[in-house]
Amino acid sequence: MNKIFDTHCHPYLNNTKSQNEVIQSFFQKWWTYMTIVWTNIETSKKSILLSEGYEWVYCSIWIHPCDVYDLDLNNTLQQLEELILKWNNKIVAIWECWLDYYWLYKDDSISELDIESKNKIIESKKKIQKDFFKAQIILAKKYKLPIIIHNRNSKDDILEILKELNFKNFIFHCYSENLEYANKLINFSPNCKISFSGIITFKSAPDIQETAKNIDIKHILAETDSPYLTPTPYRWKEENEPIYIEFIIKKINELRWEDCSNEIFKNSINIFWLKK
Predict the structure, then answer these.
(1) Beta bridge partners of 170
(2) Mean pLDDT for the chain?
(3) Across 48-52, 153-157, 215-219, 269-273, which has the greatest mean pLDDT?
(4) Between 20 and 30 A from 221 (CA), which of 30, 65, 72, 146?
């Protein structure tokens, strides 16, 4: 397993090591690549500068969906486009294109409202998220970049919007749905990628394991999403790091009864259009 690509990690969020320590420990063990993910304009700039310091580190840029409600969409797009034009050698994707409905229903600021008022606010915020999601797709189309999708209780709306805009160049990050939904994604986009995180190593994830076992290998990526979702055997013991990507790939190999590491690496290279 000489070449490994952690397609999605947050080394700057590690609480026990510096971001450079996290990155360097990864490259000391593996000769490979990683994609760093940030969540807003200012931190996207930091990710670019961090990736500039390492030949094999790349980054993605965008705005977290829970932060979009007070932003001007056109102004945000303009700033992101300027970053893409200036740093196209390092920016390999538009991340993390969320529809995150999970937190909408846990918003303490509306908990005391009546049902009708609460639902009105939730639907209004869903629309803003959808507008930003669609804008990300349009931007990705313009610059021929893949989008990295994170779904939180919004899988039907995500697929509906992808079909509406006929956008098929996407990675479904930290996959947490079942095989049936994966097949819907694949039927719509035969070259889409489905990325598995440390969750696949958990005993509580039979649906995710079934998906990794049964979809075509050409769709599979691996990621740590570190410092979150530390895989077994370090779950609850250590903060997650890119070096633990090996346990995710080993679990995929175990499920499929074959060594898939080279194919997973090639899939990662292909989706980000990088040179070996």
Answers:
(1) 147
(2) 91
(3) 215-219
(4) 65
Provide the token pair at 215. Answer: 């979809």
What would the pLDDT profile of 71-117 be if each residue is shown by its tens digit?
Answer: 888 998 899 899 999 999 999 999 766 788 878 887 778 878 898 99
CB 161 within 8 A of CB 130: yes
Residue reference for tokens 């931190």:
43
With tokens 């489905």, the residue in question is 194
The answer to whether 273 and 92 are in contact (CB under 8 A) is: yes
On whether the CB atoms of residues 186 and 219 are closer than 8 A, the answer is yes
What is the structure's pLDDT at 37?
83
15's CB contacts (< 8 A; 6+ apart) are 227, 239
Determine the angle formed by the axes of helices 115-143 and 155-164, rounding to 10 degrees. 40
**Locus of tokens 């670019």:** 48
Residue ranges of domains in the chain, CATH in brackets: 5-272 (3.20.20.140)
